[in-house]
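A.,

Following up on our hallway conversation. Structure tokens first:
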């Protein structure tokens, strides 16, 4: 294993973290236990297998005095292997519990240790002995959703998969060649032009999205640093029935369900949904398999106003579909969500110095995150125990109280909700609103 400089967006995630806003993503998997000791056996397996996964032995180290071959790395960070890796420091077996999400919420509050490989696996045995859960936490600088899935799958029971295509070796870094300076200057100017173009698009579309938009105090409360999680299961066949009736994509339906659920939740808790149209950031992956940073985050995103104030469920869905069609037509290099692409045009020292400021500014761009995390269709197992449910969990940005992540797995849609526990003490009510919104959309689609 060799060291690699962090990709620009990874470095941004590393530097915007604070104690109240840890930048780890997670997944809570619920397994069907085949014995009362299945949870303890799972913890032992995870620790044993983690040793053989190179990506789990990587820590992030700040770079203040870079190699002379990397003159622009000052103030950056590297991803490098550790020799004294202790897997049992990262895999922890907890006491039996009757509520996996209550424990997961408390564990989501805690930032990962920055001096060690930034990931953890927490095994939560169920009190009744028929199930156990595993909460995987990965720092966003170590892995995005797809990479985190790959790392987690590597410690599951082996699955017969086709052999991956070999990745070409990364060329060795060479000393700076002065003969290439003219090309470097032209490239820098070209990058600057792209950055200015993206920046202008971000500013313009952020203004457009802000006009006429109104969020709710429940979504933008002052952060307490506490966390609460919840999970919702929806039948994927129901989602397909809705999609076939109205058109659009499965993702359009899933976003519209979030809008309708927020409307129900706000009305039920007495906050009111009239005039509420929060700005949702919908991340879009731009990763290419053979880039210079194969493990790095490559994200853009779409920005849209959720039609929370519209009382008609089908009209809400059509509004979401139209907004997503406009975003796709413009492409991920346009719009407020493209602000993440600007990270590529900032020197490492700029990320280090500007990280706290950027974290404070997230609420200027969006009010709620709604992200989709891909999962394999193959059934996963741990110690012979099948994975029955899997809830993706996203980090909370500064100034925001709720984040929604969605995955489809073996015929079901899994909504993972993360909230500030003090700002949103009734997250279970929002979970119920998701289920009722799907039912209402199905009823509205009946002839």
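Then the amino acids I'd put at each of the 447 positions:
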């Amino acid at each position: 294993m060799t060291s690699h400089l962090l990709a620009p967006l990874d470095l941004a995630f590393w530097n915007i973290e604070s104690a109240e806003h840890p930048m780890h993503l997670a997944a809570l998997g619920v397994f069907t236990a085949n014995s009362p000791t299945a949870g303890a056996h799972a913890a032992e397996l995870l620790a044993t297998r983690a040793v053989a996964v190179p990506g789990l032995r990587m820590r992030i180290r700040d770079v203040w005095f870079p190699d002379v071959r990397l003159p622009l790395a000052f103030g950056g960070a590297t991803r490098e292997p550790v020799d004294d890796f202790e897997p049992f420091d990262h895999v922890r077996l907890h006491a039996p519990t009757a509520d996996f999400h209550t424990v997961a919420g408390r564990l989501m509050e805690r930032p990962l240790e920055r001096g060690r490989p930034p990931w953890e696996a927490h095994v939560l045995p169920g009190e009744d002995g028929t199930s156990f859960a595993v909460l995987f936490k990965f720092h966003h600088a170590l892995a995005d959703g797809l990479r985190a899935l790959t790392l987690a799958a590597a410690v599951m029971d082996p699955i017969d998969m086709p052999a991956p295509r070999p990745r070409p070796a990364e060329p060795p870094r060479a000393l700076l060649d002065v003969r290439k300076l003219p090309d470097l200057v032209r490239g820098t100017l070209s990058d600057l032009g792209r950055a200015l173009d993206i920046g202008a698009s971000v500013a313009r579309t952020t203004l457009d999205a802000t006009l006429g938009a109104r969020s709710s105090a429940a979504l933008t409360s002052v952060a307490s640093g506490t966390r609460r999680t919840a999970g919702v299961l929806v039948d994927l066949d129901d989602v397909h029935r809705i999609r076939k009736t109205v058109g659009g994509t499965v993702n359009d339906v899933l976003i519209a369900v979030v809008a309708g659920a927020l409307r129900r939740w706000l009305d039920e808790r007495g906050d009111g949904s009239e005039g509420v149209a929060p700005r949702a950031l919908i991340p879009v992956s731009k990763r290419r398999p053979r880039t210079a940073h194969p493990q790095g985050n490559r994200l853009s995103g779409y920005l849209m106003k959720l039609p929370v104030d519209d009382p008609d469920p089908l009209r809400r869905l059509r509004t979401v579909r139209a907004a997503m069609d406009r975003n796709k037509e413009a492409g991920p290099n346009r719009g407020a969500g493209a602000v993440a692409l600007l990270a590529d045009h900032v020197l490492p020292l700029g990320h280090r110095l500007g990280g706290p400021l950027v974290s404070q500014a997230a609420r200027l761009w969006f009010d709620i995150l709604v992200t989709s995390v891909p999962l394999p269709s193959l059934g996963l197992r741990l110690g012979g125990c099948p994975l029955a449910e899997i809830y993706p969990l996203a980090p909370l940005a500064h100034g925001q109280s709720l984040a929604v992540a969605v995955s489809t797995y073996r015929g079901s849609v899994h909504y993972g909700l993360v909230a500030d526990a003090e700002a949103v003490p009734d997250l279970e009510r929002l979970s119920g609103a998701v289920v009722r919104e799907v039912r209402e959309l199905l009823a509205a689609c009946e002839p």
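The chain has eleven helices and 15 strands. Curious whether your intuition agrees with the design.

B.
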